[in-house]
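Following up on my earlier thread - several people asked me to post the actual chain instead of describing it. Fair enough. Here it is, all 493 residues.
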Amino acid sequence: MAGNPASVRLMDESLKLATVQYSRRNKALLNILLLGIDAIMLVIAFPIGYYAREVLPFFPQPEGQPPLTLYIPMLLLQTLAVIILFYFSRLYHQRRTFSRFDQMRTIIGLVTLGTLLTNGVLELVFRDTFLDVNYPRSMFFYVWFFTVLFAVIGREGHHWFLVQMRRRGIANDNLLIVGSGKIARDIAGKIKNSPELGYNIAGIVTSKDEHQGKMLGLPILGLYPELSSVIDRYHIEQVIIALPDAKRSDLVELVTLCQRGQVDIKVYPDIFAYMAGDMNVDDLGGTPLLTVRDIALRGWKLSLKRGLDIIGAVLGLIFLSPMFLLTAFIIRMESSGSVFFTQERMGLDGRPFPMIKFRSMRPDAEVTGPGWTTQDDPRVTKFGRFLRKSNWDEIPQLINVLLGHMSLVGPRPERPVYVQQFREQIPRYMERHREKAGMTGWAQVNGLRGDTSIPQRTTYDLWYVENWSLWLDIKIIIRTILQTITGTSKNAY
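Reply from S.P.:
Thanks for posting it. Predicted structure:
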């Protein structure tokens, strides 16, 4: 016998509410767990730094060092100071995506500040009191180093655990996508393929009467005017408005409809915001002007980047030269033909240059014309597959870097035949040629290499051009090396 529809609906609502409350409780517990892990790691790091001076004597040990127990007040003060700094720097605000390198840099800065503040309090407040204790500079260094190390390790462990919980749907947010165009489909597809982001997509809200339809397997829950009721009915916690071409008045109305309780609202930027990037306001004789494009790499920064390129290329060519000889020997043993493969590519200002690589394909690979390399490409040799997977085929480009054709980091160069196609199809494509081409780049470390979307690559390349910094280059180089060593370099074939 069928149940009462009202009772079934009430039970369904109760189940949804219980699920949301369960997820919120788990997220709160995960935040508390992070705080606890930080505190434990900070407390453990102090005594390890104290005893490490005996095992790692980088500095002369002071005579008559006080016992560890006398440092307990200082340990507690430093732990409290660092945790407070973490809190006000929003390190307990769990972002779904973040850069480990940026987080490590933040932790280094905050731990340094926390240890300095603790040392200052020791000098200004505890001096000549029963809490006064000798705190030598050598111990300061050891404690600082292990505090940074253990804080990073603890947060890596918590992040791994958080990802596992999200993959199991234990600490996820209910998400609603507003829109049904290409952008909305791309966002939905990315979220469905990235369970570690911690989203449960409840469905889609569109402008058309498509209540019975689906998009990417997701139900269409209602129309724009019904946003408020949809959010309440499905206990939505996150809303993404994916309408880049919407009028400003329409966006304001949609955002107003979404303002329910503690709902977080994210809006995909329109094409102007994309073009503007990080907008700046300049002044022209009292008249404000909005800068929509500002190339970051100018003046002394060019010299700094070139200096980094020369140092990196020289050191790389010197220390890797034995591996060069071994690679050349294996290539010649596997197949006849040249060890190196040179190909015309377009670099700075669209000027062509001969890019050098280790040959990874058969000598007759392009007898029928140029072709895009794809996964399981039959033209790639057995050893060549290893070269491409490990990025080792790119290493001879250090010669290009030394000659000034390329940089260690920058937009990857393409062949002139492809550049001609892309410049006609993709807006602003040629602007990526305002900087030198690179051996690796921001797009590549984000998985956009090989047979992947050129428009997406262009977006990443333009962001790099307009947001360059020495730290960004260092971060890209480190990520490239780590992805290569760990075998996590996406689309490498």
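Residues 5-55 form the longest helix (51 residues). That should answer part of your original question.
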